Inverse folding.
C-alpha cells in the first residue's frame, strides 16, 4: 500500500534497472498493488512507521538500517538482541549488509510445455483434402484417447544489476498428461508437471525451488486450419534459500568482514491461465501461420523469516505479484514422408510483452532487533517489457497414433534473463 501511494506522490519510474536481491529475496519479495486514498496517509504512516520513506536497493537500505540499530556512531542505545547485539559491538563505524536472493518470479514465462506439445492436437481433425505429406496429416488414425510424457531441462542466467543478485540456474522438468477427444473438434485433458530450479548466486549462496503443477487443458478446433488452446494451472512452490549476509565491510576493529550464511524456507502458490491460438495455411507440404496468446499469472507468498541464528536474519512481509504477458508470433512446419513415418520439423518465433509486473517495494526487518524498533524497505527490479522466444522442434508421427518429438527453446532480448532449454517426449493415441 505504501509503495503504491509513494508511486502516486513521487511518480517513480517503473522501468529502471532490475532488482538486486543482491541482497535478498526479490521475487518472492514483491508487494501487492493496492489503491489507497491520499487522505489515509497519516494513518498509514502511523501503522507502518517502521518502513523507510524512500525505497532503495537492498544493500543501501539494509546498511542504513544496521547503522540505526547499532546507534552508529555512538553505539550506546543499541536496538538489538542476541548475536545481532554482538555484531553491533564489533562495529566501529557503520557497516553494510549484503544478501543474495532469488528472482524466480520475475523471469519470463515461456509457453506452457503442455501447450507446446498439445498444440498438435489440432491435427486430430482429419483433413481429407490435404495430400498425405502435409503437416496437417499428423494425427491420422488417432483414437479418442491420448497420453503423453515429456522431459527436459533449461539453463537460466539472471544478469546482475543494481537491484538483484546475478545467478545461474538449472531447471530439469518432467510432464505427464492424458486427454480425451470429446469430438473431432474438442479435446480436454489433465497434466502434471514437476520442475526443480537449483541456482548459485554470483556472490555466494543460492536457492532451490521444487514446483508441482497440476493443470487442466482444452484444445478446440473452431474450423479448418485454426486452433485455440487453454490451460489452467496451479503451482505449489517449496523453496530454500541460502543468503550471504555481510556486515562491517570496512568498519570493524580488526578491519575484517562479518560474513555469514543465512537460510530461509518458504512456500508459495501460483495460479496461471495460458491461452494460445493460431491459424495454419498449407502450401503443399509446408504449413505456415500466425500465433497469438496471453499468459496470466498470480503469485502469492505469506510472510516468513530466515531460520538460522547468525544475527543477520531477516523477516519479510507477505508478497504478491501479478504478471500479464501477450504473445505474438509465427509458426512454420513441413512434412516429409519417411519409411518410419511423417517427419515434421517445426519453427516458432514469438514476441512477448509484459503489461502488469512492475518494480515493487519489499518490507523487511532484522529478526533480532528489539520489538517495535523499526524495519526497512527496499525496491525490486523492474521486469523486462519485451523479449523473444524462439523454438525449434521436430516430430516423428508413426503408425497407430504414436508421435515422438524433440524441442529446443531459448529466451533472447530480455534485459534480465537469458535461457536455453530442450525437451524430448512421446505421445500415444488410441
Amino acid at each position: 500500500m505504501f509503495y503504491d501511494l509513494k508511486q502516486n506522490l513521487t511518480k517513480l519510474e517503473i522501468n529502471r534497472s532490475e532488482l538486486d536481491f543482491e541482497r535478498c529475496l526479490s521475487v518472492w519479495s514483491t508487494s501487492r498493488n493496492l489503491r489507497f486514498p491520499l487522505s489515509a496517509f497519516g494513518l498509514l504512516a502511523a501503522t507502518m512507521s517502521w518502513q523507510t520513506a524512500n525505497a532503495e536497493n537492498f544493500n543501501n537500505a539494509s546498511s542504513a538500517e544496521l547503522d540505526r540499530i547499532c546507534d552508529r556512531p555512538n553505539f550506546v542505545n543499541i536496538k538489538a538482541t542476541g548475536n545481532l547485539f554482538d555484531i553491533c559491538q564489533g562495529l566501529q563505524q557503520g557497516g553494510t549488509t549484503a544478501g543474495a536472493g532469488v528472482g524466480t518470479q520475475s523471469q519470463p514465462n515461456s509457453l506452457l510445455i503442455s501447450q507446446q506439445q498439445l498444440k498438435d492436437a489440432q491435427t486430430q481433425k482429419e483433413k481429407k483434402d490435404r495430400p498425405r505429406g502435409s503437416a496437417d496429416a499428423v494425427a491420422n488414425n488417432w483414437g479418442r484417447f491420448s497420453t503423453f510424457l515429456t522431459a527436459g531441462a533449461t539453463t537460466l542466467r539472471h544478469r546482475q544489476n543494481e537491484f538483484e543478485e546475478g545467478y545461474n540456474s538449472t531447471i530439469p522438468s518432467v510432464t505427464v498428461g492424458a486427454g480425451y477427444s470429446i469430438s473431432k473438434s474438442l479435446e480436454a485433458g489433465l497434466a502434471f508437471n514437476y520442475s526443480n530450479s537449483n541456482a548459485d548466486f554470483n556472490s555466494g549462496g543460492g536457492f532451490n525451488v521444487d514446483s508441482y503443477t497440476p493443470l487442466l487443458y482444452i484444445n478446440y478446433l473452431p474450423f479448418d486450419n485454426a486452433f485455440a488452446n487453454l490451460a489452467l494451472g496451479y503451482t505449489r512452490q517449496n523453496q530454500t534459500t541460502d543468503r550471504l549476509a555481510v556486515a562491517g565491510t570496512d568498519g570493524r576493529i580488526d578491519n575484517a568482514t562479518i560474513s555469514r550464511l543465512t537460510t530461509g524456507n518458504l512456500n508459495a502458490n501460483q495460479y496461471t491461465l495460458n491461452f494460445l491460438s493460431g491459424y495454419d495455411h498449407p502450401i503443399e507440404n509446408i504449413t505456415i501461420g500466425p500465433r497469438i496468446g496471453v499468459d496470466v499469472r498470480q503469485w502469492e507468498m505469506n510472510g516468513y523469516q530466515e531460520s538460522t541464528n547468525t544475527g543477520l536474519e531477516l523477516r519479510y512481509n507477505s508478497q504478491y505479484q501479478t504478471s500479464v504477458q501477450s504473445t505474438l508470433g509465427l509458426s512454420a512446419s513441413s512434412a516429409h514422408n519417411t519409411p518410419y513415418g511423417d517427419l515434421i520439423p517445426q519453427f516458432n518465433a514469438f514476441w512477448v510483452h509484459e503489461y502488469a509486473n512492475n518494480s515493487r517495494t519489499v518490507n523487511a526487518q532484522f529478526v533480532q532487533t528489539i520489538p517495535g524498533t523499526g524495519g526497512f524497505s527496499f525496491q525490486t527490479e523492474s521486469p523486462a517489457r519485451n523479449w523473444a522466444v524462439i523454438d525449434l522442434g521436430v516430430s516423428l508421427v508413426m503408425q497407430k497414433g504414436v508421435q515422438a518429438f524433440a524441442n529446443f527453446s531459448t529466451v533472447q532480448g530480455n534485459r534480465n534473463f537469458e535461457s536455453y532449454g530442450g525437451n524430448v517426449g512421446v505421445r500415444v493415441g488410441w
